[in-house]
Amino acid sequence: MHELSIARSIIGAVHEEASRQGATSVLELELVVGPLSGVEIPSLEFGLQVLSRGSVLEHAALHITSPKAEGRCLDCATCFGLEFHYAECPSCGSFRTEVLSGRELKISSIVIE
User: Fold this and answer.
1) Across 73-94, average pLDDT
2) What's the pTM?
């Protein structure tokens, strides 16, 4: 369950920024977690909930968005939605594709007090 180590890293980054800003608490934390990132969102939420107890993040509202995963065919340049890292192009049938989006795992916003 690598989500706990990811949660720990997120909390560390948020603590660092809150400290740098002289904040006493974090009101909101917004994350972007792509469907191809390999992160199970419920497990990440659980890890953040457990590991943030007693910290400036304890009462923060957590918002997680998950953008659509998109890919592009390297043979015909068709862009299409992805469910997996490797997919067949719906236009030409090629498996030579690249992931354009969906691997994101980032802090998009921190609201501090």
Assistant:
1) 96
2) 0.88
